[in-house]
Amino acid sequence: MSTNTVDNNRKVTTRRLVEMKQRGEKISMLTAYDYSSAKLLDSAGIDVILVGDSASNVMAGNVTTLPITLEQMIYHAKSVMKGTSRALVVVDLPFGTYQGNSKEALASAIRIMKESHAEAVKIEGGSEIRESVERILCAGIPVMGHLGLTPQSINKFGTYSVRARDEAEAEKLISDARMLAEIGCFAIVIEKVPAELAARVAREVSVPIIGIGAGGGVDGQVLVMHDMLGINQGFSPRFLRRYADVAGVITDAVGRYIEDVKSGDFPNESESY
Ligand code: KIV
Hints:
By secondary structure, the chain is α/β, with parallel strands linked by helices. It is 44% helix and 14% strand.
């Protein structure tokens, strides 16, 4: 068996992600919110599954990520864990469950870990949430950071456009990334910032930087599965590459099913008892 085959079957851990960065191997990450999708992603060999709070948009039809609750995130995470054996599963701490104080943040993270059996949490923000991140890390819970465009702050930003174009915001992003790595985060998502800035952070920080809309100079990439599979058709930012037209496949199949039901062609004799 080649080393590659062994690696492909080996469970992905936070430590292994850091090793991947050290040897220049890119990290693949996608979102999933349910058992069946998680099973497909895991068997396809994805490294990290993110139970993202984008479930608020994609699964529940909300305009922002803000409405999703801790209970709903735990429900999604439990389903994903049942379909996953190799990938590392990371769960977003939803809006309003960690910003109040660090004890509340720890209690939310503990609920996710205890009730869903997921392996890590992700939190949006930098210096503002340092104390919460430190407290969660002290409890032995791995934390993935999230900087740049942080969708839970959409009402502060007022737009989903590219962040950190100006020097002050770019400097803050660099110092936040350094701080998150120094206090012990195992990886950091950087969303929608100039490629050059994201590449600089990836060079200067020892933990993996996973980009979304952050160019190719980082250590890995994440996309929302429904966007990259073309299930969610209404979202087409420049950074998104569509790998399939699943909405087209479903619409076509459902159309043919409706025709067959209406014409009496389905079910036929061999499909009946
Ligand atoms: O919730 C999510 O899906 C995310 C990714 C976009 C990184 O945070």
